[in-house]
Design brief:
378 residues, Carbamate kinase, Archaeosine Trna-guanine Transglycosylase, Chain: A, domain 4, eight-stranded mixed sheet, disordered C terminus, binds adenosine-5'-diphosphate, binds the ligand N[C@@H](CCC(=O)OP(=O)(O)O)C(=O)O, Glu_5kinase/COase_Synthase, PUA-like_sf
Length: 378
């Protein structure tokens, strides 16, 4: 039997752990073959690849013992070009360009960084490239580190609005107990809700090899983040034949069903923004476009009040003076004022650049009354 959620997924984030990156070219080639095949079917694929520290260690003569944070950062800096080179090499066989994106925790904290990262990744996907994401280990510190790339991958899934997160590891999925200590452990094929009993099954990384960092524990946390955003997660073995495509079959890997919806997670995020610093007043045509789930174009804006940066939350005021929505502005207040009421084609001439046709993108709007995309208290 095949998993419908797999076939229906339009945007997939694939995360590859350090242990796989070290397994040699045939494993990497097999993963790339599957990604190229899915991309060829029109699916949008973002790759989150670990392995910079593991690949950088031997280059700097760092042995297999434990490393200080600074040594890990140095190893990551030395290993990252090798890692990207490996992906570039293997995707070149399919005529696909790769593109490196190094992200940090604040990409999910700062709305401006969030918008920029999302726009870059979507543009790369529109252009047919495979984005290869890793944490920017040089500027990550103990306090702000993700700790592992499983959660980074879940954040990236939220960022790009993925509907499936594939975590490829050195193990076939979640077992009902740590298989290193319990040889009788059984694979858990499906998880509908991640509760305490699921967390209790998961142990740490494989301390024997010392390569992975998060273990099953961080994969469950990642699946939890993804599930709340309406994204399913599958954990499977990256060293199997056709490692990703085989996960369509119900007998393979562990499948975690989504619990929330992408819309409700996004709505909660926008609605939870600090008090909006500004307001955009719009005309009746724009108000009905918003009610229909469309973006706010500059042509429908009548006035812009207050001081806000690109990425800040703004109140959207309808023609009768009441707040009808909250949104994340795609432009700062002064630029928004300059393009207010103008046509999309005029933006570049007015500002000297054109970022997006929308003043506030539909994905970043939450209506005050439940409608096309959920509701919030504006
Ligand atoms: N309940 C469990 N089911 C499966 N694997 C588990 C479990 N508990 C702990 N593990 C360990 O988690 C490891 C995978 O995590 P990790 O080493 O961080 O991999 P990666 O480098 O792929 O992120 C497995 O090799 C296994 O040793
Ligand atoms: N940024 C680090 C990520 C380390 C990490 O999370 O590793 P893993 O547990 O194998 O996914 C690296 O590339 O080495």
């Amino acid at each position: 039997m095949t998993r419908r959620g797999f076939d229906a997924a339009r945007c997939i984030v694939v995360k590859v752990g350090s242990s796989l990156l070290q397994s040699g070219p045939s494993v990497i080639d097999a993963i790339a073959d599957d990604i190229a095949s899915l991309a060829g079917q029109g699916k949008r694929i973002v790759l989150v690849s670990s392995g910079a520290v593991a690949l950088g260690r031997p280059r700097l003569g760092l042995g297999s013992g434990s490393l200080t944070l600074e040594q890990k950062q140095a190893a990551a800096a030395a290993g990252q070009p090798v890692l990207v080179g490996e992906w570039e090499r293997t995707f070149a066989r399919h005529g696909r360009a790769t593109a490196q994106a190094l992200l940090t925790l604040d990409v999910t904290e700062s709305r401006r960084h969030w918008l920029n990262a999302r726009a870059t990744l979507h543009t790369l996907l529109d252009l047919g490239a495979i984005p290869v994401v890793n944490e920017n280990d040089t500027i990550a510190t103990d306090e702000i580190r993700y700790g592992d790339n499983d959660r980074l991958a879940a954040r990236v899934a939220q960022l790009v609005g993925a509907d499936l997160l594939v975590l490829l590891s050195d193990i076939e999925g979640l077992f009902d107990r740590d298989p290193r200590c319990h040889p009788e452990a059984r694979l858990v094929p499906e998880v509908h809700r991640i509760d305490a009993s699921i967390h209790a099954m998961a142990g740490d990384a494989n301390k024997l090899t010392g390569v992975g960092t998060g273990g099953m524990r961080s994969k469950i946390l990642a699946a939890e983040i993804a599930a709340a955003s309406g994204c399913a997660t599958i954990i499977g073995s990256g060293s199997a034949r056709t490692p990703i495509l085989r996960l369509r079959q119900t007998g393979c890997g562990s499948w975690f069903h989504p619990t929330g919806s992408a819309v409700s997670a996004r709505a909660a995020w926008i609605a939870g923004a600090h008090s909006p610093n500004g307001e955009i007043r719009i005309d009746a045509g724009a108000a009905s476009a918003l009610q229909a789930g469309k973006s706010l174009l500059p042509v429908g804006a009548i006035a812009v009040d207050g001081h806000f940066e690109r990425g800040d939350a703004v109140r959207i005021i309808g023609p009768d003076g009441t707040a009808i929505a909250r949104g994340v502005s795609g432009y700062d207040a002064s630029d928004a004022r300059r393009i207010c009421g103008c046509k999309t084609a005029e933006i570049e001439a007015l500002l000297g650049y054109r970022r997006a046709s929308a003043l506030v993108h539909a994905d970043d709007i939450v209506l005050s009354s439940p409608g096309a995309n959920g509701g919030c208290n504006v």
